Amino acid sequence: MVEGIGASSGIAMGKAFVIPTWEWDFPDKLIDVTDLAFEFERLYDGIRCSKDEIVHMKQEFVSVLGEEQTSIFDAHLAILEDPIFMSEVQGIMQRQYKAAEVAVKEAIEKFVNMFDLLDDQYMKERALDIKDVGNRLLKHLLGALEETLPPKDHPYIVVAKELIPSQMVHLDINQALGLVTMLGGKTSHVAIMARAMGVPYVLGLEGKLNTAIQNGDFLIIDGDEGRVFVNPSEEIIEQYKIRKTIWQKMRDKLQTLAGVPTQTKDGVAFQLAANISSVKELDQALRNGASGVGLFRTEFLYMDRHSLPQEEEQFVVYKQVAEELGGKHVVIRTLDIGGDKSLDYFALPEEDNPSLGYRAIRITLDRTDLFKTQLRAILRASHYGHIKILYPMISSIEELDKANQVLEEAKQELRNERIPFQADIEVGIMIEVPAAVLIADILAPKVDFFSIGTNDLVQYVLAVDRMNEQVAHLYDPFHPAVLRMLKQTVEAAKACNVPVSVCGEMAGDIRALPIWLALGIRDLSMSVMSILRVKNSLLQSQYSESAAIWKEVLGCGSGKQVVEVLNKHLHQDVLTK
Ligand code: PEP
Ligand code: MG
Fold first, then answer.
1. Considering the domain boundaries, does residue 151 fall inside one?
2. Where does phosphoenolpyruvate bind (predicted)?
3. What confidence tier does 271 reach under pLDDT thresholds 50, 70, 90?
4. Radius of gyration of the chain (CA)
5. pLDDT, position 117
6. Is the same domain home to 43 and 174?
């Protein structure tokens, strides 16, 4: 058994499908001149195999994605036939007597660097294609056995060094039973998506496995305990089959709470809304009794495609969400890319500290063209339901003013075009940067609401990368510094009568309920799968006890002590976790 970090609840059992890392480590091998002909033969063989594989992948994908979306495979085939790329490879072999794989690696590096330097979006994309095709070719030259397509005949557990959000968009949840990654963080977007999809996920196995997991190994993953069993004994399998049944029973029991009013034992009502990334999650959110959508992460609309979504396309999606909610609110957050979320077609600069770099509102205020397109789409959709706008990563009054100025321009354009929209649409900001907390009193009079994003707030207050499993033990939402940040935000908001909600992962943590109760926060937004669990706990909580708990918590010197206090008051009844 290997102990990792449980990032999405539940138990999965099945065969491993290992996603290749495409990281090759081989010596700079030279060849003898007499071996040149043989080496060329190897190169051509590799090219043939790569082409066959790409053609096969294209056929596989055509049925799922449609003809249009598979042009990427044609582009990859074209690279393998490109005379300039090929003569570079051949030239290195012929002139420097380097082995085929060394020549291919050097040629890839040369072209990727060359294209990357160009200030041209299209060329940057080509650099990615060359890297991808080159890696495929290297795989064949090195005789590596990795499968690149998941099995079709049986479900599987995805194993990868690291996953990125756009890979999650491709995941077939009918086939993927669970996820295991060596790297990653509990509040990474991949983890958030796994929870939203209800797919068990364990991460942080780097350096903990004696031998690497192989394709076809039988795995059990326990997303609650953070455990992974590789080829376990019959006895363990039997134990986990029983656990899985119990887990399912608990979920069924929770489901019966969906229609029950959301309030504490002593009658304090809450709004438990859902965080969603796509329209697909809306059904489940409503089935779980969500009071609305407290956070619509729109960046996922921009993923899994080749170009930016245009106004009309975005409008259709926002309108659909607003209408399906039938009067319940949806908080649409403007584009929050950067950090761990990238877009293939939107080349973000390579940065040493992406979380502190070009991301979220910093990008949209720089690219007001795409910001305004999104705001126009949101405004137009506001005519069809209860929509609010939320700006991410605000850290200064100037950013807020500038964002509002673009919003005003968008409104004016729509007025001129006689397109209807909600003129007094509510506009709020994420409180997720410590600077925003410290100037919350200055920001509050200028907004309609605050939404506390604890995922980033914890990362920035504690200087702990939310993506880095090596410092995961330091990532502590219950750290006294975080609690003081929450307190200060709420006090500043109260002074201006500005409502505060919480939409970070902490909102879905039942241990935090007494804190919200004591602070007067009544609006939480969380992963769809957390709603009923939090509700179950809330139904057993007493508002009258929360002030004393909060006092005790504020007196604690460490996050560990805070958790000890909160654990004493935990209500989970039908649940063990
Ligand atoms: C947050 O930072 O808490 C948040 C909700 O936003 P995201 O997780 O998308 O960064
Ligand atoms: Mg955030």
1. no
2. 297, 333, 455-456, 466
3. very high
4. 26
5. 76
6. no
Q: What is the pLDDT of residue 576?
A: 44
Q: What is the pLDDT of residue 375?
A: 98
Q: Which ligand 1 atom is the nearest neighbour of the CA of 455?
A: 3
Which residues fall within 8 angstroms of residue 468, CB to CB, at 6 or more apart? 183, 185
In angstroms, the CA 178 to CA 240 distance is: 14
Q: Identify the CA nearest to 386 among candidates 314, 324, 328.
A: 328
Q: Based on the fold, state whether residues 109 and 182 are members of the same structural domain.
A: no
Q: Which atom of ligand 1 is nearest to the CA of 452?
A: 3
Range of the domain at 498: 270-576
* pTM assigned to the model: 0.78
pLDDT band at 334 (very low <50, low <70, confident <90, very high): very high
Specify whether 383 is catalytic. Answer: no
Active-site residue, 503 included: yes
Report pLDDT digits (tens) over 197-240: 889 999 999 989 888 899 899 999 999 999 999 999 999 999 99
CA atoms within a 13 Å half-sphere pointing along the CA-CB vector of 205: 28
Instruction: Report the domain count for the chain.
Output: 3
Any domain includes 259 = no
pLDDT value at 524 more than 60 = yes
Name the DSSP letter for residue 343: B
Q: Which atom of ligand 1 is found nearest the CA of 392? A: 6
DSSP letters, 233-287, are -HHHHHHHHHHHHHHHHHHHHHHTTTTS--B-TT--B-EEEEEESSGGGHHHHHH
Task: Give the domain CATH number at 389.
Answer: 3.20.20.60
Residue 341 is predicted with a pLDDT of 81
| pLDDT digits 0-9 by tens, 22-41 | 667 788 888 888 889 999 99
Contact 570, 537 (CB under 8 A): yes
pLDDT at 63 > cutoff 70: no
Overall residue count recorded for the chain in this entry: 577
Looking up residue 99, the CATH number of its domain turns out to be 1.10.274.10
Given 3-state DSSP classes, what are the helix, strand and coil percentages for the chain, each rounded to the nearest 5?
A: 50, 15, 35
In this structure, are 296 and 180 located in the same domain? no
Q: For residue 17, tell me if it sits in a domain.
A: no
Supply the residue whose CA is at minimum distance from atom 3 of ligand 1. Answer: 453
| Distance in Å, CA 351 to ligand 2 centroid | 18
Lowest mean pLDDT among 65-69, 229-233, 434-438: 65-69
Q: Provide the percentage of residues in the chain whose pLDDT is more than 70.
A: 93
Choose which residue among 186, 297, 356 to substitute to test ligand 1 binding: the one with the highest number of ligand atoms within 8 A of its C-beta.
297
Distance 166 CA to ligand 1 centre (A): 17
- In the reported structure, the alpha carbon of residue 453 is separated from the centroid of ligand 2 by a whole-number distance in angstroms of 5
State the number of CA atoms in the 13 A half-sphere of 533 facing the CB. Answer: 22
The pocket around ligand 1, CB under 6 angstroms, is made up of: 295, 297, 336, 432, 453-456, 503-504
Q: How far is the CA of 279 from the centre of ligand 2 (A)?
A: 20
Q: Shortest CA distance to 425 belongs to which of 381, 395, 392? A: 381
- Which of 15-24, 101-110, 173-182, 509-518 has the weakest average pLDDT? 15-24
